[in-house]
């Protein structure tokens, strides 16, 4: 909120400074994303390359214990558990978001979360020496819990720290590091590096290093200013955190906006998941994040990656070179997510989401056609490769990075933790469902499976087009007012009280007196 008259000039200059990417803000974004989000991506793909060597280890360990080879059905079950325990752990991690971020803060949650990752890394790294495959499955659950927390808390933490004109770009940084994590795991997993019989325990154990770095460096950076002011009631610490993040002393207008947000939601208090689901004033926000998170995971991204190797093989790519092609696809994913960081503030969230889902939908439809005609029309295999690349480009610029940004922006401080808990749970359950169901879909439907993904992309795109507003360069309160009209409710705010928070130097004592007595 801006003050009129003599304070307009100082407010405008303050806003100009706020919009800059300062070194402390950039550093805290990089440390948070590298220490947390990177590991989500790394552990998504780290077991793909050494899968055969790990299964040999399972079989050998079982043989040494029992004296008989492992039954193939039992081995398939154990490997399915190894893969599926990660998204299941992610679901449990999402359920821990609300209590942790409200009690120990955003930064505190990230620091505690590192203990999960370091523990799992030690267990996985020593599993071969200890001759136990059970700890690998247990560690995958632990890493899933870690990823479930990280995938929700990092976007929340960075979104609350960012100025409104950089919130989208900074909000995509976690997704950028997820794609980087996938790429690094693919590179290190090459047969010539660590994706071999001797190197796979090291490959799994490396996941603890980013957590250790974050554990040692993040304590030197401030907590979320919004958490400090609105939830802890500590204006002085919030002011100091903002001044450090903005590189500017005049942060009164942002403090005012936080007080305005606090005042507007004072009657509701902190939302639990149950109260969030039953509160009319947040109905469309809640439906929107559920639709976007389901659309993100049920749009077939995992299926496209699953099919990619076979598509490249059918196009004549040498079987020994396919792993390098997979790395190239990972690199395209990183480059397009990086592009999204730079264009999200100019094009907006809606355009990237709509364009992304349109590209994904069209790619799935064409891929169905190309895969069916491939046996009779040789050049269709190249169209299949093109469809895979276009799909990954579409998903990387919109459906992958934007939904988490939208959760941050569509909810205020009191409801944001519960919203991330719901969104995260939907994300991980949908991920788990695709992993469970797709193999059966492939057997029953073959290439026609992609028509289902095409329909889901189209339905999600239509919902976003008609319901989801543009949130670019708007404050949380401005977005809240837009959604309040759709929910047919009034936003509670006391503008007369907020006008008393003057930004003229020398009135800090008066500000504190007013805030303690009236707010």
Walk me through the structure.
There is one protein chain. The protein is mainly α and 519 residues long. It has 2 domains: 23-221, Growth Hormone, Chain: A (Up-down Bundle); 274-489, Growth Hormone, Chain: A (Up-down Bundle), CATH 1.20.1250.20. It contains 25 helices and no strands. It has helices at 8-18, 23-45, 51-66, 72-95, 97-125, 127-130, 134-161, 167-188, 200-205, 208-217, 225-231, 235-246, 252-264, 273-278, 283-298, 301-314, 322-347, 349-373, 380-397, 402-410, 416-445, 449-467, 476-487, 495-499, 508-518. The longest helix is centred in the last third of the chain and has 30 residues, at 416-445. It is globular, with a radius of gyration of 24 Å.
